[in-house]
Recover the amino acids of this structure.
């Protein structure tokens, strides 16, 4: 497989929903997501991609889910399927452990943090597009949770907003192996100009530093 | 095993909670045809009879009909999905047209062709649906894991009750069909076949 080139200036790593409820063993969604996460080594790979990005000076952009608080869905007549679970189990609760960034993947000084998304796509109803355009970003590497929901939805919006999209098949995780397969083995190939593994991406990101 | 069981329990719980959405008043229901254009339906002729049946049912019940066609492609970084759809459009001289047997009538909404996968992105679809006071959106179309999938996600995001009629969409491969079967219920509140839809309206 040929290693794709990405521009040193104009690329960014978008980390979708790196929150405790997904990533910590104490998180509310961990029992659901741990199977795929362990199978593909998601947490380790997320760390590797983000650290390599920081070393090469590639902006890290956080696209977090809205934190749950009581009455949050009172203006919605028809709840999104994901809202049913969020509401019932207070997932990503505001001010609580589950709604906080996963310790070692928390934003650092200089990172960009988008306003939170209500459902799925990191672009829907947020300032993510404005922040990226403001920073001159054209090429996105999208990683995080979950493979076929928020990450794929963010990629779908990014495609429509005319970004160049790179997807990383083992720096994402989701509910079941079937969900994961639907995303990484089927739909990513239609959405990403580049679909790579973490190992392949690290080669590209390492090369980007050399050129700086 | 435990993973699948947990996932099923959570999904069944959500499906049960959303069953009450399954009403389709004529005033607030629209059928949204995504990319129902000759270039695509001629590749997946299998869905045309069901699309005709869905259209006939919709006309009988007085649902709003909306067509969201693809075209006018001009992206700087074309995704493989958009490249494929554009190639299919260009392969037929009249490929952009809505098939005659599914032709719109006066009163139907026909959007301008859009270059995006989602029918909501960079179009006035949401405004038009809001103006028509639509709450229930029934989505159908070919190459469903490309544009229809993006459209369903945005519709659910925007607060509609989204219904996917499983035999009114098609894909180009078994793996793509499997992918939408797995993922669309994570977005559409109602996923039913045409017979069930008919029994509900």
């Amino acid at each position: 497989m040929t290693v794709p080139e990405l521009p040193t200036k104009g690329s960014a790593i978008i980390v979708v929903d790196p929150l405790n409820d997904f990533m910590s063993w104490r998180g509310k969604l961990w029992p659901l997501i741990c199977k795929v996460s362990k199978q593909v080594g998601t947490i380790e790979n997320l760390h590797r991609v983000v650290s390599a990005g920081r070393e090469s000076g590639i902006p890290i952009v956080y696209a977090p889910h809205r934190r749950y608080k009581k009455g949050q869905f009172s203006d919605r007549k028809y709840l999104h399927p994901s809202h049913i679970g969020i509401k019932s189990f207070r997932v990503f609760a505001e001010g609580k452990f589950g709604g906080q960034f996963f310790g070692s993947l928390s934003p650092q000084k200089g990172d960009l943090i988008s306003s939170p998304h209500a459902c799925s796509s990191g672009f829907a109803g947020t300032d993510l597009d404005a922040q990226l355009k403001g920073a001159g970003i054209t090429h996105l590497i999208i990683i995080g949770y979950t493979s076929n929901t928020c990450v794929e939805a963010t990629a779908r919006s990014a495609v429509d907003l005319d970004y160049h999209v790179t997807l990383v098949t083992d720096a994402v995780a989701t509910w079941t192996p079937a969900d994961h397969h639907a995303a990484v083995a089927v739909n990513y190939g239609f959405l990403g100009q580049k679909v790579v593994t973490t190992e392949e991406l690290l080669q590209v990101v390492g090369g980007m530093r050399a050129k700086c | 095993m435990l993973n699948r069981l947990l996932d099923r329990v959570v999904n069944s719980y959500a499906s049960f909670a959303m069953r009450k959405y399954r009403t389709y008043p004529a005033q607030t229901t629209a059928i949204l045809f995504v990319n129902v254009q000759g270039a695509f339906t001629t590749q997946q002729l299998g869905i045309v009879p069901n699309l005709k049946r869905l259209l006939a049912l919709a006309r009988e019940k007085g649902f709003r009909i909306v067509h969201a066609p693809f075209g006018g492609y001009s992206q700087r970084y074309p995704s493989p999905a958009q490249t494929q759809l554009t190639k299919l459009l260009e392969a037929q001289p009249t490929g952009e047209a809505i098939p005659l047997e599914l032709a719109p009538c006066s009163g139907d909404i026909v959007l301008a062709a859009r270059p995006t996968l989602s029918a909501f992105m960079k179009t006035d679809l949401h405004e038009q649906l809001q103006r028509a006071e639509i709450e229930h959106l029934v989505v159908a179309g070919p190459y469903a894991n490309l544009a229809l999938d993006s459209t369903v996600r945005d519709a659910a995001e925007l607060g509609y009750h989204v219904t996917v009629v499983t035999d009114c969409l098609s894909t180009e491969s078994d793996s793509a069909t499997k992918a939408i079967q797995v993922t669309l219920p994570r977005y559409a509140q109602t996923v039913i076949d045409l017979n069930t839809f008919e029994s509900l309206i």
